[in-house]
Amino acid sequence: METGSTDSRVAVVTGASAGIGEATARRLARDGWRLVLVARREDRLTALASELGGATVVALDVTAGHAPRRVADAVRGEHGALHLLVNNAGAAWRGTFADTGWENVRRHMELNFDAPVRMTEALLPLLRETAAAGKHAGVSPRISIVNVASTAARVARPASGAYSASKFALAGWSDALYAEERPHGVHVGLVLPGFVLTEGFPATELRAKAATRWIVSRPEVVAGAIVEAGPGGKAERYVPRPYGLAAALRILAPALVRRATAGGALTTATRPTRP
Ligand SMILES: NC(=O)c1ccc[n+]([C@@H]2O[C@H](COP(=O)([O-])OP(=O)(O)OC[C@H]3O[C@@H](n4cnc5c(N)ncnc54)[C@H](OP(=O)(O)O)[C@@H]3O)[C@@H](O)[C@H]2O)c1
Q: Which residues have a catalytic role annotated?
């Protein structure tokens, strides 16, 4: 696995101002990557960049029409190559369909599905060019895209239907992209975290009880999985790994999973994210 020192490989991390994205940026910087940090809160990105000894900061809303082009221009202009795209920016707004309607589905799809698809569209040409240049030069560092989905991309829970829909879409699209981009030298990895303590996903109920506290993981653990699913070449990675069991049970014992989710098990709060 190519997870060690990387000299001057370039990575774009969306949602780098907090949580899993920030932990991923720190991990990649430690491994020697040059970073392009993307999120809305410029102050946080700038502080992180200077703490990491320098990085390109692109402060924007990834759902904005101009966002993918601005990121692509910054990467080309400042680095001229791209070895890793981490589509991580995302959020969840809890609510039943009856209470929150199509509008809640729309905003989840816009941020958690459309934005990574559009970012990938803008950066794929440079990823392919970087792969081709490496092949031509006889060096083949793995060029990759990592899409951060969720265990909710496999098992839906009440009041998280809109979030699940967006992550199911991301997982399905990632599988097709994996197969399509293989011949072009671009690896596509999917990361499916379970409950991870971050500001957007505080997992308050789970952390309140000793019986469920252990379920909640840390952003640094997900950052390690992102490295495995990108430069490490894994196609799919649940974090922590046992969450893969829930996905398997959904197929093998759907009635059991329906009973567990409908009974209120496996619920956790996500706080309303900044607009
Ligand atoms: N934590 C969990 O339990 C968990 C579980 C499964 C999957 N995930 C997934 O992991 C990813 C990261 O989540 P997290 O837990 O690290 O959440 P977080 O701590 O709330 O961080 C979310 C990041 O996304 C950025 N972001 C949100 N909306 C954005 C927008 N419109 N434009 C640009 N950036 C935006 C935020 O930055 P700004 O606010 O500065 O823009 C922040 O950097 C998400 O895709 C989430 O669905 C999380």
A: 163
Q: How far apart are CA 44 and CA 197, in angstroms?
A: 19
Q: Provide the pLDDT confidence category of residue 274 given band limits of 50, 70 and 90.
A: very low
Residue 47 half-sphere exposure toward CB, CA atoms < 13 A:
7
Segment 71-124, tens digit of pLDDT: 999 999 999 999 999 999 999 999 999 999 999 999 999 999 999 999 999 999
11 in Cβ contact with 34 (< 8 Å): yes
Neighbours of 114 (CB within 10 A): 17
Q: CA 77, CA 153: separation in Å to the nearest integer? A: 35
Ligand 1: residue whose CA is nearest its atom 18 = 200
Per the confidence metrics, is the pTM higher than 0.90? Answer: yes
Tell me the pLDDT tens digit for each residue of 221-259.
999 999 999 999 999 999 999 899 999 999 999 999 999
CA terminus-to-terminus distance, the chain: 39
Index of the ligand 1 atom closest to the CA of residue 62: 32
Domains of the chain in start order, with CATH, are 10-262 (3.40.50.720)
Amino acid symbol at 38: V
Residue ranges around ligand 1 (CB below 6 Å):
15-21, 39-41, 61-63, 88-91, 111, 148, 150, 193, 195-196, 198-201, 274
CA of 201 to the centre of ligand 1 (A): 9
Cα torsion 197, 203, 209, 214 to 10°: value is: -40
